[in-house]
TrEMBL record:
It comes from the Eukaryota. The active site is at H374. One of its GO terms (biological process) is cholesterol metabolic process. It holds the Pfam family MBOAT. It comes from Anisakis simplex (Herring worm). Belongs to the membrane-bound acyltransferase family. Sterol o-acyltransferase subfamily. The chain crosses the membrane at residues 66-84, 111-131, 236-259, 279-298, 365-386, 417-437, 443-465. It is found in: Endoplasmic reticulum membrane. Residues 1-39 are annotated as: Disordered. Keywords: Acyltransferase, Endoplasmic reticulum, Membrane, Transferase, Transmembrane, Transmembrane helix. Residues 16-28 have a biased composition (Polar residues). This is O-acyltransferase. It is a multi-pass membrane protein.
Amino acid sequence: MCSANTIDEKSDKNEANGNKIMNDTSASHHAPNHRHHHKKVVFREKQFTVRASLLTVLMEKSDMRALRNFITSCFILMFIGTMLNDTLTHKNPLYHFWLVVWNFNQLPQTLVVWLLMALSTLLPYFVLRVWSDSPSKRLASKACNFSIANSGKRLLETTRIAMKVHSFVRENVPRVIRLKGAAKDKIIISIVKLPFQHESGEAFPTIQQLAYYFFCPAFIYRDHYPRSDTRSWNVVLKYFVEVLLTILCTNVIFTQMIYPRFNPIDYTTSGVTFWIESMFASVLPGLLCLMLLFYGLLHCWLNMFSEMLYFGDREFYLDWWNSRNMAEYYRRWNLVVHDWLYAYVYRDIALLIGGKRGLKISQTAVFFLSAAFHEYWFGVALQFFYPVMRGLKISQTAVFFLSAAFHEYWFGVALQFFYPVMFVLYFIFGGIFYWVSTFIKNASAWNIAMFTNLLIGTGMFISFYSQEWYARLRCSPISSNFFIDSVIPRHWFCTEYVDESVVI
């Protein structure tokens, strides 16, 4: 019998490979209910196997290839229309590339910061190695105003590296403790000789293993991953070109659909009527950006690195568009992050606290972390705070809250302002929708409700963040107090412009 308080409690044919929680079924549904009898929850371990991404499999069918070609033709027409408009208006067919240039003009500085962050991962590696070789049981333990894209890259890499380092330390501490036991009668050995192997036959991970883990598309550390038999640089180039094309498509959407709508607005006179109109008008560009993000990042980018590194397990997402409830949607959208949240937040907290209470608290923690970080990312990138994301019921509040927190963190740093639109959408509206979705039994009704939720959410996201972005550039500060001015949306109370010439 499945427990009703776990994230992955419903069996799923698409996840028969083991990506679910399995409960002990020794107790019959009709057995007497004794106080001393409890169902034992057995948490799954992430198993890496050689498998292709879902879209790669689906693209083998002619119907899916026809759909892809149709979408591609639509974007080709958008490019042609944009170039004709730029030629007639600005005498330059490539004028719309100004947004790409502005976003990537500080790429060298961003790469330097990334290199420093990458080198920082060696610190916990050598600390753990020295500790494992020690016989002792105890060991003492706005200067740069980056654009949105550069700020976003730095924040995403910071989070990615932190998650990888956490997994590396978390998976190797038990091994280190075993190695310390084997080395208790020996003198501390120099760490230069790699890999050092103790009498027990167990060795500390090598630098090569750490380097492979750093670049492979997985957040769960293993000494060895399943590898594909071949590597095609043509496939790598294909995915890289598709990533560039998704960036260019996003640029066209912003310059032709978002910028013309929100740049000319007088935010000293705009009100609720404009907010509602712009929210529904932003549904289409928001949906297009969401699909481009999914295809460009979760499919093309991750498959590109998988192909380069012979990484065999390429199941980075599942068919989230066929999800039967909100929990399935959140889990299937991004399996790479979901596996990390499940292994190191949900499972650890549940085991630490124990019982149904532990399951509820652990689910709340995961959701909070995700919501908060999403809000922080947008806040720093846009330089303001504005909460608008999605959430869950009490039993899964932890998972959604942590998820919303992470998203807010990323957007906050990337946008360089704090405006928790993501947090409200993810933790509050998402939580309400999840609760409502539990009453929807019809599969078609659920899909309609899910896509309606996604569409209105992306519309709110694009609309509110765009308004606050331009208001922050032009409107005078609300308060001389930095904190108050940072957390109160400026486009709500804009009364006068400081600089009307700003056009970014």
